[in-house]
Amino acid sequence: MKILKYLLVYRRFLLIVLTPLLLLPLPLIIKTKEAECAYTLFVVAIFWLTEALPLAVSALLPAFMFPLFGIMGSKEVASAYFKDFHLLLMGVICLATSIEKWNFHKRVALKMVMLVGVNPAWLTLGFMVSCGFLSMWLSNTSAAAMVMPIVEAVAQQITRAEAEADMLEMSCSNGSTNLALELDENIGQSENSDWKEKRKQVNGYDNDMGSTVCTIEKENEKEKEQNLPPAETGRKSREDKNSGIFKVMCLCIAYSATIGGLTTITGTSTNLIFAEHFNTRYPGCQCINFGSWFVFSIPIAVIILLLCWVWLQWLFLGFDFKNMFKCGKKKTAREEASAKVIQDEYKKLGPMSYPEIVTFVLFILMTLLWFTRDPGFFPGWSSLFPKYKGYATDSTTALVIGLLFFIIPAKTLTKTSNGESTAFGYTPLITWKEFQSCMPWEIAILVGGGFALADGCEVSKLSAWVANKLTPLGSLPLWLVILISCLIVTSVTEVASNPATITIFLPILSPLAEAIHVNPLFILIPATLCTSFAFLLPVANPANAIVFSYGHLTVMDMVKAGLGINIIGVAVVMLAIMTWIVPLFDLYTYPSWAPNISFSNSTGL
């Protein structure tokens, strides 16, 4: 037992030491560059999946392993760790830092909830829409962390309102003694008459007397429960319903934070990793940008969000159309309590401050510049620089706007009663310290490690070898290949981080598409979207963990709900990739920017 205890305590250390040693025969026996690159890839992938080392530390392994194996020079590997992706990420984090600092996110969330009303079902949808909208521009974790305290306040206020209503009903029922006596007499009479009937039934079944009497006793207990005072029965049913409402509200925040991130390239790190990998591997294709991604992903997110809302309502509350769409009916205690909390929270914010207005204007400006850079259906602003076509990317816009947050002052001149202007000390909208606290450096290094691995696979010809071995999959129907890749990615991302999962699979799926002579976007887009579908477990992604920490959910609640959302997500992505995404990128045509791979050279791997 002692040995097992020590093994359990030092399991991470043993994994770190044994993984490279056990895989060492691969490069020693098969002495090729492909085998050496595969060894590096396996070691890094295992460390990423198990998180034996921090993700960023594991991502640094190729920086010294590739030079030692003679695959790439140290300078070449180092250049892979900082790409256009990192500049885009820095610009977006500048915006997110200002939004969080000046509480603009809270104003947006509360306003959206106020617009949809306080009916429990519509209130849930309001929280989902507001959280989903925030996660389009902020990280999924930040969006969930921002909205969840508002949800908790509303939930607690609902509980208080219901408790007060219960106390009022109980006091009224205790005061009406005559009604209570009549109720007790009726209950006693009904019990006596029922017992007489059941005894008659028992006399007819002498051989099975014991089991029948037990059955009667159980039925009698059930009837006593059913004959509880109406106030008590109502209180129990309301407690069960409140518990269901809490679960729905919590889960809707966790899931909408993830779903909202699907809609923009900057919405989640997996989308950014895909965009950088795709643009690096296929530089001749300029079809993936902020606008094109938004056009095909917004219908996917909207459909999944609505179906998620319906699924959660049905699973925990039942889908009551009559109460959902009631018009002109008086608000219940719960609805009035919810409305009061939301209105009070919004009033506390006061009128929009100067920093909030500037942040909002810069946010709108950044979004417009992203959409109009190269929309495709009309000449964008990038056409104003015909000599430098392709030079400006989405990161250019993000950096220009991001820089303004460090320049524009956070306070304006104010006039005193004498009419003189008073100048405050110059402070920009955000400071470098605030930016650093929001910047996800671990993700930045992790993505850099993924780019280094991808470059190593190309240089060592490991990608070509993988593509050669995957060629037989071309005999399968295309929809089945896409479905298999989606299901594999969705399963892995439940136990591994989303960025690590997409970083591992992109260098595998790209050669697969080239090997079976299919437009790479046909496989890469659905796989990228499905990488975000980590809905099953509290540890699957940070948004789930934040919501689970509030104590309203069990693991089984998340598994039940998450399994349904996973199925919905994969089904909607499959529908999208086979319908409206096809004409956007002409997916049924093998593009000229994708390589035509020939497999004349064989390796010993």
Automatic annotation (TrEMBL):
Entry keyword annotation includes DNA-binding: no
Main location (coarse class): membrane
Q: Which InterPro entries does the entry link to?
A: Na/sul_symport_CS, SLC13A/DASS
Q: Where in the cell is it found?
A: Membrane
One MF term in the entry's GO annotations: sodium:sulfate symporter activity
Give the CC-aspect GO terms: plasma membrane
Q: Which UniProt keywords apply?
A: Ion transport, Membrane, Sodium, Sodium transport, Transmembrane, Transmembrane helix, Transport
Give the transmembrane ranges. Answer: 12-30, 42-69, 81-99, 119-138, 245-273, 293-316, 353-371, 391-408, 478-509, 521-540, 561-582
What domain of life does the UniProt record list for this protein's source? Eukaryota
Give the bilayer topology.
Answer: Multi-pass membrane protein
Q: Where is this region: Disordered?
A: 218-239
Q: Which family does the similarity line name?
A: Belongs to the SLC13A/DASS transporter (TC 2.A.47) family. NADC subfamily.
Cite the PANTHER family for this sequence: SOLUTE CARRIER FAMILY 13 MEMBER (PTHR10283), SOLUTE CARRIER FAMILY 13 MEMBER 1 (PTHR10283:SF65)
Q: What is this protein called?
A: Solute carrier family 13 member 1
- Species the sequence originates in: Coturnix japonica (Japanese quail)
Gene name for this UniProt entry = SLC13A1
